[in-house]
Amino acid sequence: MKMLVPIKRVLDYNVKPRIKADGAGVELTNVKMSMNPFDEIAVEEAIRLKEKGLATEVVVVSVGEVKAQETLRTALAMGADRAILVTSDRKVEPLGVAKVLRAIVDEEQPQLVILGKQAIDDDNSQTGQMLAGLLGWGQATSASHVELAGDCVTVTREIDGGLETDRYCLPAIITADLRLNEPRYASLPNIMKAKSKPLAQRSADDFGLDLSPRLETLRVVEPPARASGVKVADVDELVMKLHAMGVAK
Amino acid sequence: MKTLVWVEHDGNSVKDATLSAVTAASKLGDVHLLLVGQDVQGVAQEAAGIFGVDKVHMADDAAYAHQLVENVAPLVVQLMASHDAFVAPATTGGKAIAPRVAALLDVMQISDILSVEAQDTFTRPIYAGNAIATVRSSDVKKVVTVRTTAFEKAPREGGSGAVEAVPTSGDKGLSSFIGQEIAASNRPELTSARVIVAGGRALGSGEKFAELIEPLADRLGAGVGASRAAVDAGYVPNDSQVGQTGKIVAPEVYVAVGISGAIQHLAGMKDSKIIVAINKDEDAPIFQVADLGLVGDLFEIVPELTRKL
C-alpha cells in the first residue's frame, strides 16, 4: 500500500514573523525556513506505518518554490522513499494545492494521504479537507491516533471537548494533530542517503488546472499592541489588585 | 446576501460558538441556519429563537447523528444553491466541514475571520496572529469560518425564524462513528469560560499541575488551560491547549502560571480582558502582555494566592 504525504515549506516555528515595510506580507527572504511542524508529524506517521509493515511506500510531495526541494530532502532523510516537487512561481492557495494533489493522487493511487492539520504560516487549515472533498474520500481531521487494519483505518481525533473515534474506508485522508507522534530527527547517514533518493520535479502549469488565486491580500498589518501592565511586589498586592478589579470577591 | 450558518450543538442545545457566527453572518446579509443531527426538533426551536435568525433548515436523520462531514457536506452543497455564503464557527467541527464544502463549490475559503469589512472583504490572522491580513474574495459564493472571540454573541432570544425540514442525502458509507470521550468536568468550557487559569511547562509534572492549578481554578470558578509545552509534556490533555494550534480564548481574566509566553501561546489568549502572569523569569515575554505580573516561584505563589483570594 502506497501513502502520499503532502508537505509545506514555511517560516521556521521559532522565527518571529516580520511584516514587510510595504504591508504586502511577511518577510521571507533571508530567514530560516523549515518543514511545517504538523507535516513533520504526518511524515513520521507514514514512515511508522511502513516500518510496521502496513504500507509499502511513502511518497512526499510539495507544491511551491524550487527551494521546497530542501524540505522534501528532509522528509527523505526521515525515511520517505521518493519525492515529487510541483513548482510554481506564484503563491498557490489551498484550493489550488488540493487540485494539484488530486491530480497526483490520480497518478499515484495511494490508499492514504496524510497531511498536517494546518500550516503555521497562513493558518488556513483547509488543504486536507479540500482534497478529501475533491476526491470524495473520508477525512479524519486532527488525528491523535491511527490504526490501520485491512481496508479500514480507525482514527482517534481531537475535538473541542475531548476525543472522537471514527472509522474510515480506504482510500482516505488523515490530517495530523500534535499528539499523533513525535517526529524523529534525521541521522547523518540518512541525510547522506536522502541525497540519492529520487526527487521528480514538475511545473504546476503542466497540470492544466485553474490555479489562479481567488483571494487578494489587500494589506498585512501588525495586530494592535497590548499595553504592558504593572508588576506587583507580592501575593498580597496581587490579591488586592484582583479584588479591586472585581476578579475575586 | 443570504447566508447559511452552521449550527454547532450538542444534541440538546445550541453552543455559544454558533451565536458568534450568527453575528458575523448578520453583517453579510440574511441569516439562515443549518441544523444537522438526529432528533433535533427541540434544538431547532431553540435555534429559531436566536436574535436575527430568519430561517432554520433542519436536517434530521440517523445519518447525521454524529454529524460526520462525509454525510453532511453534500447536504450543505445542495443548500448552497440557494444561499450566497456558508458561515461556520472556527471550532473543530466548523473547521472540518467548511473546507470540504468550499472545495465542492470550487470556492477558496476565508478561515478564521476577525471582521467583515465588506461583503467580499475580511480580516483574518496569519502567522499565529502576529499579522492581520485583509483579504478580498473574488468567488461568487463565500465560505468563511469565524473566530468566535472576535464577534459578540447574538442574543439567544428575540428571533422568530421558521423551521423548515430539508430532504436529507443519506449515509455516504465513507465513515462511521465509533465513540467519543468527552472530558467530564464541572468546569466551564474554555472557549466560554469567564475566567481561565492556565499552566505551563514550569509546573514540572501532571501531578503538580493538578495540585496547583486546579485549586486556584476552583477558587475562581475558572476553566483550566495549558500551554502547548505542558500538553506536549503530557501534563494535561490536548483539549486544554490554548494557542495557535489549540483553542483561541478571550475570557475576562486569564491567569498564566509558569507560561513563558511563546508567540504561539500569546496567539490564543492575548485578547483576554485582564491577563495575570506568574513566572520566575522577569524577562519572560508573557509580562509584555500581562496587566498584572508577579515574578517569583510559582510553587510558593500559587498556593498562597489560592489561600488568600
From TrEMBL, chain A:
Record-annotated Electron transfer flavoprotein alpha/beta-subunit N-terminal domain positions: 23-211
Gene Ontology MF terms in the entry: electron transfer activity
UniProt keywords, alphabetically: Electron transport, Transport
SUPFAM superfamilies cross-referenced by the UniProt entry: Adenine nucleotide alpha hydrolases-like
Transport recorded as keyword: yes
Cited function: The electron transfer flavoprotein serves as a specific electron acceptor for other dehydrogenases. It transfers the electrons to the main respiratory chain via ETF-ubiquinone oxidoreductase (ETF dehydrogenase).
Quaternary organization: Heterodimer of an alpha and a beta subunit.
Name of protein: Electron transfer flavoprotein subunit beta
Source organism of this protein record: Novosphingobium guangzhouense
UniProtKB/TrEMBL annotation, chain B:
Its job: The electron transfer flavoprotein serves as a specific electron acceptor for other dehydrogenases. It transfers the electrons to the main respiratory chain via ETF-ubiquinone oxidoreductase (ETF dehydrogenase).
Signal peptide (UniProt feature, chain positions): none
Family assignment from sequence similarity: Belongs to the ETF alpha-subunit/FixB family.
Protein name as catalogued: Electron transfer flavoprotein subunit alpha
Organism: Novosphingobium guangzhouense
Entry note: cofactor: Binds 1 FAD per dimer.
Record lineage: Bacteria, Pseudomonadati, Pseudomonadota, Alphaproteobacteria, Sphingomonadales
GO molecular function annotation: electron transfer activity; flavin adenine dinucleotide binding
Highest taxon of the lineage: Bacteria
SUPFAM superfamilies reported for this sequence: Adenine nucleotide alpha hydrolases-like (SSF52402), DHS-like NAD/FAD-binding domain (SSF52467)
Cofactors demanded by this protein: FAD
Any Gene Ontology biological process: fatty acid beta-oxidation using acyl-CoA dehydrogenase
Subunit structure: Heterodimer of an alpha and a beta subunit.
Residues involved in FAD binding: 201, 227-228, 241-245, 258-265, 279
Domain Electron transfer flavoprotein alpha/beta-subunit N-terminal: 3-181
Record Pfam families: ETF, ETF_alpha
Keywords associated with the record: Electron transport, FAD, Flavoprotein, Transport
UniProt-listed InterPro entries: DHS-like_NAD/FAD-binding_dom, ETF_a/b_N, ETF_a/FixB, ETF_alpha_N, ETF_asu_C, Rossmann-like_a/b/a_fold
